[in-house]
């Protein structure tokens, strides 16, 4: 396993190393804004299988799709009523948005679900990698989990010390699935009326 430290290596070297692995169908660990992430090319079935295997993920538990920008997010979320508003007011940031899965995305990324979890990280290294080699299908890393990946990128502690907030925007009213780094009151200010529910997730 190759290890690069983004605090001492040039961002160009880090990004090109990540791109080489991703384009070759490999897996990487990289810094996200709320935790580190284990990721791969979502259009490479064997790479996606590898992420599931490394993470010991249930095949009924979807991966999250990370993209580089709010504009790219909208390419995947066009059929979602609140997508434009959410992209302008919440992204990039520590928020996971649940959208309707576009038909062109492989089913194995979403574990066969009709919805897709998406993030635009508020993390410069992650976004630089995503701009060069994204999108990435990813699973969050909890604590000091170690994985046998092709490349691990270090960048110290993450920007936020809480898990991401999860918001379902598949309907005309936003639904708070999990409160995290962005609280309910702030979401209501940004999106208007928002309902609550509860779910277990780690992003």
Give the SSE layout.
Elements: E1 2-5, H1 11-23, E2 28-31, E3 36-40, H2 45-55, E4 64-66, H3 70-76, H4 83-90, E5 95-100, E6 115-119, H5 124-133, E7 136-140, E8 151-154, E9 165-168, E10 174-178, H6 184-191, E11 194-196
Parallel strand pairs: 1-8, 2-8, 4-6, 5-9, 10-11
Antiparallel strand pairs: 2-3, 3-7, 4-7, 5-6, 9-10
Helix pairs in contact: 1-5, 3-4
Structure write-up:
The chain has helices spanning 11-23, 45-55, 70-76, 83-90, 124-133, 184-191; strands at residues 2-5, 28-31, 36-40, 64-66, 95-100, 115-119, 136-140, 151-154, 165-168, 174-178, 194-196. The protein has 203 residues and is an alpha/beta fold. It has a single domain (2-196), classed as Alpha-Beta Complex (DHBP synthase).
List keywords for this structure.
DHBP synthase; 203 residues; single chain; 6 helices; alpha/beta; eleven-stranded mixed sheet; globular; 11 strands
Query: Helix content range of the residues, please?
Result: 25-40%
CATH fold title: DHBP synthase
User: How many distinct domains?
Assistant: 1
The geometry reads as globular
Strand neighbour order, sheet with most strands: 1-8-2-3-7-4-6-5-9-10-11
Short summary:
With 203 residues, this protein is α/β, with parallel strands linked by helices. It has helices spanning 11-23, 45-55, 70-76, 83-90, 124-133, 184-191; strands at residues 2-5, 28-31, 36-40, 64-66, 95-100, 115-119, 136-140, 151-154, 165-168, 174-178, 194-196. The protein has an 11-stranded mixed β-sheet with strand order 1-8-2-3-7-4-6-5-9-10-11, sandwiched between helices.
């Amino acid at each position: 396993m190759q290890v690069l430290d983004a605090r001492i290596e040039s961002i160009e070297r880090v990004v090109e190393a990540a791109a080489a692995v991703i384009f070759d169908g490999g897996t990487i660990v990289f810094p996200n804004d709320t935790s580190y992430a284990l990721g791969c090319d979502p259009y490479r079935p064997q790479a996606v299988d590898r992420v599931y295997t490394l993470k010991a993920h249930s095949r009924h538990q979807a991966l999250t799709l990370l993209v580089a920008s709010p504009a790219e997010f909208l390419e995947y979320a066009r059929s979602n009523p609140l997508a434009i508003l959410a992209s302008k007011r919440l992204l990039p940031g520590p928020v996971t948005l649940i959208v309707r899965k576009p038909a062109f995305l492989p089913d194995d990324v979403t574990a066969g679900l009709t919805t897709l979890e998406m993030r635009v990280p508020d993390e410069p290294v992650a976004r630089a990698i995503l701009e060069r080699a994204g999108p990435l299908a990813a699973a969050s890393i909890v604590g000091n989990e170690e994985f046998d990946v092709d490349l691990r990128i270090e960048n110290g502690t993450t920007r936020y010390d809480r898990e991401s907030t999860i918001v379902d925007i598949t309907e005309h009213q936003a639904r708070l699935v999990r409160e995290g780094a962005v609280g309910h009151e702030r979401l209501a200010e940004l999106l208007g009326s928002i309902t609550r529910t509860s779910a277990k997730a780690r992003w």
